[in-house]
Amino acid sequence: METMNFALVGVGGQGVLLASDILAEVGVQAGFDVKKSEVHGMAQRGGSVLSQVRWGDKVYAPLVGKGEVDFLVSFELLEGLRWLELLKKGGIAIVNDQRLPPLAVSSGGMEYPSQERIDKALSQASKEYHIVPALAKAQELGTERATNVVLLGALSNHLDVAEEHWLKVVEERVPKKYVELNRKAFAAGREL
Amino acid sequence: MDAFGCVRRCFAIGALAARNHLLGELRQEVLLGNEAIARGIVESGCHVVASYPGTPSSEILPAVVRFKKELGLATHVEWSINEKVAYEVALAASYTGKRGAVIMKQVGLNVAADPLMSSAYTGVKGGFVIICCDDPGPHSSQTEQDTRFFAMFAKVPALDPSSPREAKEMVKAAFELSEKHRMPVILRPAIRVSHARQNITFLPVQELERPADFEKDPGRWAATPPFRYILHKELNKKLASIEEEFEKSELNACDEGQDHTLGFIAGGTSYSVLTDTLRELGLDGRFPILKIGTPHPLPQKLVADFVAGCNQVLILEEPDAVIELQVLDKHKVLGRHNGVVPSAGELTPEVISQIVTAEMDKLGLELPPETDTRELATLVADLDLPVRRPRLCPGCMHRAAFFAMKRVLGSNAIYPSDIGCYTLGLNLKAVDTCLDMGGAVTIASGLYQAYHQDGKDVPIAATIGDSTFLHAGVPALANAVHNQARFILIILDNSITAMTGMQPTADSGILADGRQGQRVAIKDLVRACGVGFIEEMDPYRVRDFEALVKRAREYSRQPDGGIAVLIAKRPCVLYDPTPLQENPVRVAVTEECDGCQYCQLAFECPALVLNEALDRVVIDRRICVNCGVCIEACPKECIVEA
User: Fold this and answer.
1) Measuring CA to CA, how many Å separate B341 from each of A89, B143, B345, B356?
2) Are the Cβ atoms of A60 and B7 closer than 8 angstroms?
3) Between chains, do B11 and A160 touch, taking CB under 8 Å as contact?
4) CA-CA distance, B485 to B596, in Å (whole number)?
5) Taking Cα atoms as reference points, which of B598, B600, B530, B534 lies closest to residue B566?
6) What element of type H or E holds B86?
7) C-alpha–C-alpha distance, residues B274 and A167, integer Å
8) B75 touches chain A (CB under 8 A)
């Protein structure tokens, strides 16, 4: 098969790493050769974060070039735009509707892109895009921290991988007392 | 839709193939490259493992601890005070016949260069492996240096893995090679191996009965220069026989190809990226690729034979031209020496794709229409998105200390700083230099001498983290005191090595495996260096801390004064949020705020946000941690306790 490439992007501290871990393990559960790259260190302190996951018959490198990503999952609106170049023609973008203004915006020097510009850019760059209220759904369930699992639920709708694989990995990767909450978060994501 | 349907069909086939694969009895887990390396260390029966944290190497030692605990092993693990110390602790284990491993990032080997050079001559007894992670990019380092050059410099072998799985296998190969030839061996994973994830099979641990047995041999372990000459000749012989062994080693492999108009030599991540790139261009299996897993010593005959069989050979490796430099006859070689491959930065899929495409053009090969990303590039560029720089966290105690320091000393003072989260004090204009580990103290010292010579008194305030102070700041401080330098040194003690992922420091007394060890108090060390002014305070008490900075400045100027050390002490908010939770100070911005933004510029907390509609600053409640320190950051007293 052609390798399936995912890019998960957001702001350091949003839970991008854990989400990409789960996505990688789901790929293994579903029987693929999987490679993943992630960023540690400096960028984790509130910088832009990119993690790439690749599923395929045989995958060598953990990195994906521009124009090669099938699914761009963004934890933040502006970051979703920043990494649009990664999307391949016919790629799909799933974007959390959260806005985290960078310093240049919060100090008033620059503007956060308007909803109109966001929609325009996303529609030009992707075959289809979904701006989803993942943060709000997670908050409804009681914690912002489940935003990443809500987003994975939304992504799972586009993939032919059994739900049980997803739930198994989610259960393994989150602390015991949060398993039920994350199951609900995943289900909420699937409904988005 | 078509492409997608095709992908879905193939999913089922892939799933079937791998299900069979998974039926094997051995346990598998998706591991980070660094965790796979740790598994390799443990499976090799290694007895002593020492490290100093640094991206991209920091996750190896904690994973060794994990496997040691799971398997109930007696492995000694330690976070050493610095890389030189770690190197020598693990090396000594090898003197006794046990296996030792030392782990660090690439610039850590600069610190451990002294024992590396010397131990190459003395050789080792038990297997001794140096795991040194490179950072092409660089992503989180001050240089893009290539550890394989260090291997050449020290005349020791280097192994270069291209994937987490291979990295684990190479750990074992490295121990065997080290033991066979009785010399240190370097494993050089680059960041895309260390921080990649892959499915890894767990194998049983090799049980090595190795009671410590140090055999006295002064001609080796205490060799004087005449003996060193002999050891150098011995080292040259070892290296020649290792090169001979590498000629036939399975660590190097050739992927056959029919078309010999071009061949590739590649190692490490570049090999993986090249293989994927050729496949995406529809050139899978067309050109031969020589994969080099042993970049030093380079198997010269293997390489020469490969080059002889091709019209031209393109060499892809990172971050520098180590294989290329060793190739004796370069007239067919394309690489960095003739500008085909860029000499700085990471060889990402885009870069390699561009290089390969350009060479295919020259060969007149028609490629499938390349995915044209120019349109999207223009689209994104036109959006003119604001960059998102890393910043100190809301509630970070470094911010409070920087703010107080700057408010007292102003912008004419010079602020040498160091390596750690607090380098982000750059955003507050509170960091003027960042050279290397411990550089804050030495640069402050040298700056003082340079100005003092001219009879000038310029305020100098250096900042250094707790772990960095212990790493290289102590000798620097002793030197500064001894040589009568005068400056303020603020030790930012947040009780943890935060930037690299919360490793405990010697000051906390906590050991790598979580047990309590002997505490080494920073304050006692400072006192022992002969410093006459030492004060410790929580920098959240901004006014009091400012008063301390003033006193410190006075002390550094008075006739009987000298270096003044302030220890700013408060736990990292990420590591230990309890003091904040126990004593939250909820703040609000009053309507009197005129939107002057002094707080944003001088205090730079991400939770202070300008609301343009209201034309004043507001608190972003989602990220505010209720530290209350920003009350001090408004000169017009518009930030108040709510």
Assistant:
1) 28, 19, 10, 10
2) no
3) yes
4) 39
5) B534
6) helix B83-95
7) 35
8) no
B448 neighbors B489 (Cβ within 8 angstroms): no
Cα nearest neighbour of A59 on chain B: B276
With left for phi above 0 and alpha for psi between -120 and 50, is residue A111 left, alpha or beta? beta
Instruction: Judge whether B575 is closer than 8 Å to chain A, CB to CB.
Output: no
Contacts of A117 in chain B (CB under 8 A): 383
Specify the pTM: 0.93
Interface list for A 131-190 with B (CB within 8 A): 144, 160-161
Amino acid at B142: Q
State whether B373 and A125 contact (CB < 8 Å): no
CB contact under 8 Å between B350 and A108, yes or no, is no
Q: Distance of CA B240 to CAs B192, B233, B474, B583, B622, Å?
A: 31, 11, 41, 66, 62
For residue B56, say if its preceding peptide bond is cis, omega within 30 degrees of 0: yes
Q: What is the pLDDT along chain A (192 residues), one digit of tens a residue?
A: 789 999 999 998 888 999 999 999 999 999 999 999 987 766 667 788 999 999 999 999 999 988 999 999 999 999 999 999 999 989 999 999 999 888 888 887 888 999 999 999 999 999 999 999 999 999 999 988 899 999 999 999 999 999 999 999 999 988 899 999 999 999 999 998
Query: pLDDT tens digit string along B130-149?
Result: 999 999 999 999 999 999 99
Interface touch A89/B609, C-beta < 8 Å: no
For residue A55, the domain's CATH number is 3.40.920.10
Task: Tell me which of B276, B372, B424, B497 to substitute to probe the interface with A (most A C-beta atoms closer than 10 Å).
Answer: B276
Is B17 at the interface with chain A, CB within 8 A? yes
Residue recorded with tokens 């609000």: B588
The total number of structural domains in chain A stands at 1
Q: Report residue A188 as tokens.
A: 């909420």
Average pLDDT, chain B: 94
Q: Which residues of A touch B105 (CB under 8 A)?
A: none
DSSP bridge pairs for B226: none
Paired with B504 in beta bridges are none
CA gap B460, B479 in Å, rounded: 17
Domain containing residue A34: 4-191
Count of CB atoms within 10 A of residue B136's CB?
A: 25
User: ipTM of the predicted structure?
Assistant: 0.91
d(Cα B573, Cα B286) in Å, to the nearest integer?
55
Tokens describing residue B616? 């004043």
| DSSP assignment letter at A41 | G
Report the alpha-carbon distance of residue B584 to residue B582 in Å, rounded: 6
Tokens of B224: 């004087």
**Residues of chain B with C-beta less than 8 angstroms from the C-beta of A24:** 30, 197
User: B275 to chain A: which residues are within 8 Å by CB?
Assistant: 60-61
Query: Looking at this protein, which amino acid is placed at residue B89?
Result: V
Domains of chain B: 12-247 (3.40.50.970), 253-362 (3.40.50.920), 397-575 (3.40.50.970), 581-641 (3.30.70.20)
Partners of residue B10 in chain A, C-beta under 8 Å: 1-2, 57
Comparing CA positions, the residue from B440, B133, B431 lying closest to residue A41 is: B133
How far is it, in rounded angstroms, from Cα B390 to Cα B479?
A: 34
Whether A38 has its CB under 8 Å from any CB of chain B: the answer is yes
- Name the B residues in 182-221 with CB < 8 Å from any A CB: 192, 195-199
Q: Which residues of chain B have pLDDT under 50?
A: 1-23
Contact (CB<8Å) A42/B499? yes
Complete DSSP assignment for B200-232: EE--PPPP----------HHHHT--HHHHHHHH
* Structural contact between residues B588 and B640, judged by C-beta atoms closer than 8 angstroms: yes
Q: Which helix (H) or strand (E) holds B313?
A: strand B313-316
